[in-house]
């Protein structure tokens, strides 16, 4: 878990505290510039935000030390992270923190939150979705429409993912973009998703898909972005087993 991520949350807390003190303890500001009702609403909103972010930090610390976190805190943290993530990324950029490391921390934290719950799903209720760039660029077979077109030659990671699809009965689809990925999700309506992608696409997916738990697995870009990427299929299998465990 990145300390930078918690650091950004603490900075947001500090700004909220400064905002609250300004609104509460500068009476001239209230009388001259702000109507008292508006002032009270602002205080309540800032206080709510502050408590919500403190709750996220507390959940992160509990997960860090492998301490059981109550379900309600997991749900609140997931929702809060989804809503506050753009602000977290904004503050990260302001403090010159690499976007990729913020995104990676976010996806890692998301995975810890998702994996801290029990699911007991069957294979058909799980969807593995991966980007097209996982397929060998020299491969002549079109697998985005149908993964059965793959000849399982072993030259790319599509092969072991098909093996996992056959072994556990999970759905596996290759998407050539975000719109296609959304269409696949609408069509299959899975109860959980294992998404393989780069940090940026994973964050977009986590922000887009609200109701379905997603375990995010970052692909490895050994040949540069979007070409002949790889994935650690052990991580994918670990995610399947976690989602299927009763
Ligand atoms: S495993 Fe072989 S046939 Fe299948 S997608 Fe990869 S390169 Fe193509």
Fold topology:
Blueprint: H1 3-25, H2 27-32, H3 36-64, H4 71-94, H5 99-115, E1 126-131, H6 158-168, E2 171-175, H7 178-188, E3 192-197, H8 199-208, E4 214-218, H9 233-244
Parallel strand pairs: 1-2, 1-3, 3-4
Helix pairs in contact: 1-3, 3-4, 4-5, 5-8, 6-9
Bound molecules: iron/sulfur cluster.
Briefly, what CATH class of the largest domain? Answer: Alpha Beta
Cofactors, ions and other ligands in the entry: iron/sulfur cluster
- Per DSSP, the total helix count is 9
Strand order of the largest sheet: 2-1-3-4
General form: elongated
Spatial separation of the terminal alpha carbons? 27 Å
Sheet-strand content, in percent, reads: 5-15%
Q: How many β-strand stretches?
A: 4
Number of domains: 2
Give the mean pLDDT: 89
Q: Give the name of the CATH architecture of the largest domain.
A: 3-Layer(aba) Sandwich
Radius of gyration: 21 Å
Low confidence ranges: none
Structural class: alpha/beta
Question: Could you walk me through the main structural features you see in this protein, from its secondary elements to its overall organization?
Answer:
The chain has helices at residues 3-25, 27-32, 36-64, 71-94, 99-115, 158-168, 178-188, 199-208, 233-244; strands spanning 126-131, 171-175, 192-197, 214-218. The chain has a 4-stranded parallel beta sheet, with helices on both faces. It has 2 domains: 3-115, no CATH class; 123-244, 3-Layer(aba) Sandwich (Rossmann fold). It has 246 residues and is α/β, with parallel strands linked by helices. It is elongated, with a radius of gyration of 21 Å. The mean pLDDT is 89. The site of iron/sulfur cluster has 14 residues, from helix 6.
């Amino acid at each position: 878990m990145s300390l930078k991520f918690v650091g950004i949350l603490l900075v947001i807390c500090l700004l909220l505290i400064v905002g609250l003190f300004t609104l509460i303890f500068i009476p001239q500001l209230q009388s001259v510039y702000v109507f008292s009702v508006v002032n009270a609403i602002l205080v309540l909103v800032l206080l709510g935000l502050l408590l919500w972010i403190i709750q996220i930090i507390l959940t992160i610390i509990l997960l860090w030390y492998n301490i059981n976190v109550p379900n309600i805190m997991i749900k609140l943290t997931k929702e809060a992270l989804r809503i506050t993530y753009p602000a977290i990324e904004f503050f990260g950029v302001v403090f010159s923190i690499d976007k990729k490391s913020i995104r990676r921390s976010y996806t890692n934290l998301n995975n810890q939150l998702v994996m801290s719950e029990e699911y007991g799903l069957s294979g058909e209720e799980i969807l593995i979705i991966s980007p097209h760039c996982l397929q060998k660029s020299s491969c002549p077979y079109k697998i985005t429409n149908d993964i059965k077109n793959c000849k399982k030659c072993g030259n790319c990671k599509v092969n072991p993912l098909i093996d996992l699809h056959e072994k556990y009965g999970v759905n596996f689809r290759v998407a050539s973009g975000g719109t296609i990925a959304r269409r696949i999700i609408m069509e299959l309506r899975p109860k959980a998703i294992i998404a393989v992608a780069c940090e940026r696409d994973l964050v977009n997916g986590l922000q887009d898909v609200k109701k379905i738990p997603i375990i995010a697995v970052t692909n490895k870009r050994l040949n540069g972005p979007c070409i002949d990427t790889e994935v650690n299929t052990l991580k994918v299998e670990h995610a399947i087993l976690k989602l299927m465990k009763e």
